[in-house]
């Protein structure tokens, strides 16, 4: 393959784009298990599944898929993926997922994607346009626009989809929603969600060293649609989520798990405003700790509850909401990984990470005997998607966290990073959800952001050398909402 720092791997790129563009133009490629004729598979038969990004969470997702054919594996880092390659010796191995899709098109029904956040949207879109069912790790996408795009693409292509927030398929999330909608805590007044993340370094400056790229890693493919930078082991294989260009920080990592019970229970939709604050913010990586507040409008009644205006606050990096009234001393809020809480007119409900173990503070009849009215997932999160993938679009029961749900939800999650990155504007930001824009940023407003904060100690006294840069706030917001991709990469 030819490589260049400003471009990308140009494997049969014209052929690949032509193939995906055909589907986008309206000629939907339907997987072979849906149509009769040569190669037909009945819904009860196995799927041929490919993995894209298999060295981390992708390995766990594949292990949770029972009885299906894993036919191909793609990862940019063959050293990190070696164990997974060994687990599936008959699967074809690739570094470039596009080459895999091109060469094995007719042999792949569905894909499991667990790449770094910045390549979620583009790998999923390319797969969906070729008629592949998609299981995509959380957060669904790196930006708000990408979430909106995948939601639309799910409607257009009709493939089965699922985001990898496994708690959404759990019993706890459903109980949490049923108790709230049944009025067990009265009408909701405020909500809080928190995590113990980051459990990796954040608040980092870009490394200055330029070590050589390992022979097992295709660095250009790892960069993908992001702006090119030299390789450094601080970025991959694991700590990529700390860096703005590749990940979405603690909020993106855990927000899709921890906000989910609240968003699902109250069917929240778009907020109308948001604001953020954090420990020192720099241009390169997410801060060590942050707080984001979302403001949702009053909505019509939902089952037995009114939905007045709601303020939902996110905390990470060790920050926590105030302990609610009635919670016994010494009892942890949620669990060690975090939790979610809604305060209502009649009581307060708390759950642990992934929506587990919900309870209402001070209630003697925990758990409440509300009727179970929300459909349950009988298998695991991945197999719920496998089931949906085997059903025809006309008769399908969509997977629990399909993109028509998780796309709009993920917009709210990654919006939190928008709030944090724009905090220097020092105001509540008004959000136009339909048009994906902030309404109250002036054309000439600016952001002053730290680029470096090094120090030296002289006679025991630290001397800081803090450097800043100033950027146009409106232009920055537009880029954070909808990224400009590197040459050679695009969604459509």
UniProtKB/TrEMBL annotation:
Gene3D superfamilies: Dihydrodipicolinate Reductase, domain 2, NAD(P)-binding Rossmann-like Domain. Residues 210-296 form the Gfo/Idh/MocA-like oxidoreductase bacterial type C-terminal domain. Pfam families: GFO_IDH_MocA (PF01408), GFO_IDH_MocA_C2 (PF19051). InterPro entries: Gfo/Idh/MocA-like_OxRdtase_N, Gfo/Idh/MocA_oxidrdct_glycsds, Gfo/Idh/MocA_OxRdtase_bact_C, NAD(P)-bd_dom_sf. Residues 48-164 form the Gfo/Idh/MocA-like oxidoreductase N-terminal domain. It comes from the Bacteria. SUPFAM superfamilies: Glyceraldehyde-3-phosphate dehydrogenase-like, C-terminal domain, NAD(P)-binding Rossmann-fold domains. PANTHER family: BCDNA.GH03377, NADH-DEPENDENT DEHYDROGENASE-RELATED. This is Gfo/Idh/MocA family oxidoreductase. It comes from Autumnicola musiva. The lineage of its organism: Bacteria, Pseudomonadati, Bacteroidota, Flavobacteriia, Flavobacteriales.
């Amino acid at each position: 393959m030819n490589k260049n720092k400003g471009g990308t791997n140009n494997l049969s790129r014209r052929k690949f784009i032509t193939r995906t563009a055909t589907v986008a133009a309206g000629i939907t490629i339907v997987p072979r298990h849906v149509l009769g004729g040569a190669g037909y598979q009945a819904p009860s038969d196995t799927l041929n599944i490919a993995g894209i990004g298999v060295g981390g969470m992708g390995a766990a997702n594949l292990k949770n898929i029972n009885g299906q054919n894993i036919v191909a594996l793609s990862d940019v880092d063959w050293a990190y993926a070696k164990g997974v390659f060994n687990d599936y010796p008959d699967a074809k191995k690739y570094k470039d997922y596009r080459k895999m899709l091109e060469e094995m098109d007719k042999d792949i029904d569905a894909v499991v994607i667990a790449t770094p956040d910045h390549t979620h949207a583009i790998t999923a879109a390319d797969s969906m346009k070729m008629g592949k069912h998609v299981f995509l790790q959380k957060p669904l996408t790196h930006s708000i626009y990408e979430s909106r795009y995948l939601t639309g693409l799910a409607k257009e292509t009709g493939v089965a989809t699922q985001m990898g927030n496994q708690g959404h398929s759990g019993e706890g999330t459903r109980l949490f929603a049923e108790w709230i909608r049944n009025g067990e805590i009265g009408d909701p007044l405020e909500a809080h969600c928190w995590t113990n993340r980051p459990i990796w370094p954040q608040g980092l400056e870009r490394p200055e060293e330029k070590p050589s790229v390992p022979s097992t890693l295709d660095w250009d493919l790892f960069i993908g649609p992001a702006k090119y930078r030299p390789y450094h082991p601080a970025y991959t294989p694991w700590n990529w989520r700390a860096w703005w260009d590749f990940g979405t920080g603690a909020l993106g990592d855990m927000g899709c798990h921890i906000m989910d019970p609240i968003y699902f229970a109250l069917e929240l939709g778009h907020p109308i405003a948001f604001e953020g604050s954090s420990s020192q913010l720099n241009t390169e990586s997410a801060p060590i700790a942050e707080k984001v507040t979302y403001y949702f409008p009053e909505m019509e009644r939902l089952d037995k509850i009114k939905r007045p205006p709601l303020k939902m606050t996110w905390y990470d990096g060790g920050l926590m909401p105030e302990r609610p009234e009635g919670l016994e001393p010494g009892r942890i809020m949620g669990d060690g990984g975090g939790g979610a809480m809604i305060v209502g007119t009649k009581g307060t409900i708390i759950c642990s990470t992934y929506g587990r173990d919900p309870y209402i503070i001070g209630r003697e009849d925990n758990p409440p005997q509300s009727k179970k009215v929300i459909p349950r997932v009988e298998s695991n999160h991945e197999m719920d998607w496998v089931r949906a993938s085997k059903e025809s679009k006309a008769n399908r029961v969509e997977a629990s966290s399909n993109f028509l749900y998780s796309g709009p939800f993920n917009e709210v999650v990654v919006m939190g990073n928008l709030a944090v990155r724009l905090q220097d504007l020092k105001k509540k930001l008004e959000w136009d959800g339909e048009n994906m824009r902030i309404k109250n940023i002036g054309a000439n407003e600016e952001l002053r952001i730290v680029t470096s904060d090094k120090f030296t100690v002289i006679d025991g006294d630290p001397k800081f050398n803090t450097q800043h840069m100033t950027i146009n706030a409106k232009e920055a917001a537009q880029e954070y909402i909808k990224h400009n991709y590197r040459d050679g990469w695009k969604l459509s």
